[in-house]
């Protein structure tokens, strides 16, 4: 690595290295190679150590996890915006219908008033005096009472309709205010996602090809160690591999996406983020589940890891920022992170927060 790149890389990982030193008492590092003596002309090839690359790996992991958390916030805001938009549309339809109803009521009230005007609007006593037939008077008085009752009913219905219109309008205004607030949340989350991914990509770009290969090897080794630790707990001894019909369909959909790129905020068909993959897989199996990993963790039925079966969702990290789908034999399928594709991985290759089941009613 050239001196310029060496400087950039060193600066990028200094904080991580410092944290590593402070966090692990007794950890020692080799002393730096002394600079060439005076008059030395031979060039020196500086090789990035595995310790430094491990610091880079941890830094990348931190950046991509932050991006994943922001992606969940973005997806949640997007899902809420969809629901609020649909609600605004429903309210707008109710407002239109209410105005049409109010116009009709006003026309009917106007017709009733006109009829009363044409009848002279005389009080019952005057009609009795003017009438030659008492029965005719009684019949007329009955009709007057009916008309008065109908007019009162019309006025009451007009009042209720007007009140409903005002409530619909206020609800619509509130939904629009929430939509605007949601847009700001989504925009802020998008900026965080882009900022974290940009930082990660910049850090990776400073590595030579050989260093990238070694970094990838370190990532695989870290995942393998985590998986081995998970398996050594004996968790597979009690696991059942019996999947439901819907679970098999969900697994078939998810595994059919292997090789497709990760893209934050994507739900397919060509790219996915982690919860986009799991939610679409279960949708393909005929079951609608929440869009984000955090909502999946909050709203789906939780089951013990030892009771996990294919199709269940494994929620990772303490903040529920990642999700994969269990496929059996200690393996899960997931969309890992930017720069990666949908793939199979050890179910215990990351810290498991818990397991949720989209189809608990199936037994």
Give the total of beta strands: 6
Q: Numbering strands along the chain, what is their spatial order in the largest sheet?
A: 1-6-2-3-4-5
Q: Largest beta sheet, briefly? A: 6 strands, antiparallel
Order of helices and strands: HHHHHHHHEEEEEE
Termini separation comes to 58 Å
Task: Give me a quick take on this structure.
The protein is of the alpha+beta class.
Write the layout of secondary structure elements.
Elements: H1 3-23, H2 50-118, H3 124-130, H4 134-205, H5 209-232, H6 245-256, H7 274-284, H8 293-299, E1 301-303, E2 313-316, E3 322-328, E4 331-334, E5 343-346, E6 352-357
Antiparallel strand pairs: 1-6, 2-3, 2-6, 3-4, 4-5
Helix pairs in contact: 1-2, 2-4, 2-5, 6-7
Explain the overall architecture.
The protein has 363 residues and is α+β, with helices and mostly antiparallel strands. Helix content is 61%, strand content 8%. It is built from 8 helices and 6 strands. A 6-stranded antiparallel β-sheet has the order 1-6-2-3-4-5. The longest helix has 72 residues, at 134-205. The radius of gyration is 35 Å and the shape is elongated. Mean pLDDT is 78; it is low at 1-47.
Keywords:
alpha+beta, 8 helices, disordered N terminus
């Amino acid at each position: 690595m050239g001196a310029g790149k060496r400087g950039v890389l060193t600066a990028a990982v200094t904080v991580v290295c410092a944290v590593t030193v402070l966090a692990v008492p007794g950890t020692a590092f080799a002393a730096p190679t002394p600079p060439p003596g005076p008059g030395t002309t031979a060039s020196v090839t500086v090789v990035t150590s595995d310790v430094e690359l491990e610091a880079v790996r941890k830094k990348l992991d931190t950046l991509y996890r932050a991006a994943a958390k922001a992606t969940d916030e973005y997806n949640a805001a997007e899902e809420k915006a969809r629901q609020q938009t649909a609600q605004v549309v429903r309210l707008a339809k109710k407002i239109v219908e209410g105005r049409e109803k109010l116009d009709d009521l006003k026309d009917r009230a106007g017709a009733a008033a006109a009829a009363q005007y044409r009848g002279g609007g005389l009080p019952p006593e005057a009609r009795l005096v003017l009438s030659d037939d008492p029965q005719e008077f009684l019949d007329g008085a009955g009709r007057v009472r009916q008309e008065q009752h109908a007019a009162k009913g019309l006025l009451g219905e007009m009042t209720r309709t007007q009140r409903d219109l005002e409530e619909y309008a206020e609800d619509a205004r509130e939904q629009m205010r929430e939509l605007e607030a949601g847009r700001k949340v989504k925009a802020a989350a998008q900026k965080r996602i882009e900022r974290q991914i940009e930082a990660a990509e910049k850090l990776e770009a400073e590595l030579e090809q050989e260093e990238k290969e070694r970094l990838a090897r370190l990532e695989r080794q870290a995942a393998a160690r985590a998986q081995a630790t998970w398996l050594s707990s004996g968790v597979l001894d009690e696991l059942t591999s019996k999947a439901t019909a819907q679970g098999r369909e969900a697994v078939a959909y998810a595994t059919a996406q292997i090789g497709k790129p990760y893209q934050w905020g994507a739900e397919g068909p060509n790219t996915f983020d982690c919860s986009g993959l799991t939610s679409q897989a279960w949708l393909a199996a005929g079951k609608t589940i929440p869009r984000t990993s955090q909502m999946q963790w909050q709203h789906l039925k939780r089951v013990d890891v030892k009771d996990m079966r294919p199709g269940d969702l494994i929620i990772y990290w303490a903040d529920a920022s990642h999700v994969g789908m269990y496929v059996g034999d200690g393996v899960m399928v997931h969309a890992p992170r930017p720069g990666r594709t949908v793939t199979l991985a050890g179910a215990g290759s990351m810290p498991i927060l818990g397991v949720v089941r989209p189809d608990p009613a199936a037994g």
